[in-house]
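Protein modeling request. Please complete all fields; requests missing the sequence field cannot be processed.
Requester role: graduate student
Desired output: 3D structure, token encoding
Chains: 1
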Amino acid sequence: MHGNVEHCQYVNCIHRNGVTISGNHNSVRGGTVFAPALAATGNGVAISINEMRGTSFLFEGFKIIADGDPSTTSRGVIDCGGNSVSMSADTILGGCMTFRDIDMSAPNARIPIKIVNRGSTATGKCVDIKINCPDSPVTRSSNGIIQSLSGTQFDRVRFEVDLPNAGAPAGTTIDAAKVCGMTEGGTVAAVTTATTFQDVPITFNRRFPKAPSMRLNGNLSAAGVNIFYTPISITTNGATLRIYTTGGSMTAGVAVNLMWEAILNE
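Delivered output (266 residues):
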């Protein structure tokens, strides 16, 4: 597909050697995309977006199977300008790049999605991502990269990449005025000490591109009177959960479960 193509779509197709899509207002819907495994033909890049006139594209409701690792050539399994000029000064029209209801099997790929602006100043550029990556490797170098090296940044990015078995933390790069759709939560156990406050550090597994907002609560009734809890020192990588009291010292030795949720929804 060339950069002068608009309003075309692939529907319920089986793509044996990945998909290359260009132009504007084009889509891939349904079916299965097998990424090429050889370095000469893509090395795990399933979706390659090139020669963009605008940023209005739709990818929805299909499965990606990729055995290679495109990060070896600075690309993602879904790739737009990872190591080339795809979104440039010639990309003069805005719009939303939508990736939704996509299941990605890419056990060796260290970057699931990479979108790089290399010169577009079009207004109204946004990215909407909802991808499930059930077998993402622990050794991934990034949860995703949405980046503006030149031109203007994206207006808004919704980033919902599910990495249920990803293991070790990795960062997420998003250059956008507003970022939404990112949440993470968990429970951490602590045992109180006979002090007026106690800090419990946590590390986010999926790392945020900006410091998120947080909610925190816990089962603290047995630790003393006037017990409160609040998140402090929130960063992109983690936070400190503080238990404190205004009614004297806490009772020592009380097991406490702190339930927390981090949210980035601008």
